[in-house]
Amino acid sequence: MDGLLLDSERIVQRSWDEAGKEMGIPDLGKHIYNTLGMNRKARNRYFLSTFGADFALETFNRMTSDVFFRIVGETGIPLKPGAKELLEYAKKHGFKIAVATSSSSGYAVQELKDAGIWQYFDSGVFGNMIEHAKPDPEIYLKACECIGISPSECFAFEDAPAGIRSAHAAGLKVIAVPDLVQPDGELLALVYKKLDTLHDAIPLLKEE
Fold first, then answer.
1. What sign results for the dihedral spanned by CA atoms 64, 67, 70, 76?
2. Are 160 and 137 in contact (CB under 8 A)?
3. pLDDT in tens, 95-152
4. What is the DSSP string of 105-141?
5. Which value, to the nearest 10 degrees, does the dihedral of the CA atoms of residues 17, 34, 5, 73 take?
6. What is the pLDDT of residues 163-187, one digit of tens each?
7. Nearest to 11 by CA among 64, 83, 80, 47
């Protein structure tokens, strides 16, 4: 969802930088490159392992949330190019659609509603509904189960390395649409197709 459908990762990065500045830790935003696709639990573990057990995690989470929602309140979260068009096409032509996001259900559903695209989804699996975060395949296996389709018959649209690994391990055909991080050669070997934007995905669906 974040970085694929919603252009939100840059807002998250900005919120981390602002919180880090207040906490006396410069360039905290750069750590987003190591945490893309993680749910909150996994991200918390990352910060504690990186900065030590005395890292003010609660303060960081509170400050970043405040900054994020302040920015969103001012500007909203833009849709990524082609996101709505792809969802409209898929829905119109009978594709089953599930969102598999590491974000929590409360946040994710509200943001998808605010973006005007929640109604296109048949189901969703969220970060607070799984035990193992991406790159573990759990979230994609559950998403396929929710819509009643075998993983081998599904496409997974992903922007982040952890998500690509998760979907591939679950047995889906992975379509990479990179956002902040370009996949390296190892990741590209796991990818069915790499696209510049979601606009380019509709021709793929027309072939199905």
1. negative
2. no
3. 999 999 999 999 999 999 999 999 999 999 999 999 998 999 999 999 999 999 999 9
4. HHHHHHHHHHTT-GGG-SEEEEGGG-SS-TTSTHHHH
5. -20
6. 999 999 999 999 999 999 999 999 9
7. 64
Nearest residue to 12 (alpha-carbon basis) of 64, 52, 62 = 64
What tokens does 95 get?
């594709």
**Residues belonging to the chain:** 208
List Cβ neighbours of 97 (8 Å cut-off, separation of 6 or more).
Answer: 87, 90, 91, 120, 121, 122, 147
Full-model pTM: 0.89
What's the token pair of residue 196? 């510049």
Residues 87 and 201: beta-carbon distance below 8 Å: no
Tokens of 87: 């969802």
Is 9 in contact with 180 (CB distance < 8 Å)?
Answer: yes
Q: 89 near 202, Cβ under 8 Å?
A: yes
- Among residues 68, 25, 24, 21, which one has the least CA distance to residue 50? 25
DSSP 172: P
* Cα 49 from Cα 52, distance rounded (Å): 5
The contacts of residue 1 (CB under 8 Å, 6+ apart) are: 99, 101, 103, 108, 111, 112
- For residue 23, what is the enclosing H or E element? helix 9-23
Residue 172's nearest CA partner among 195, 189, 190, 155 is: 155
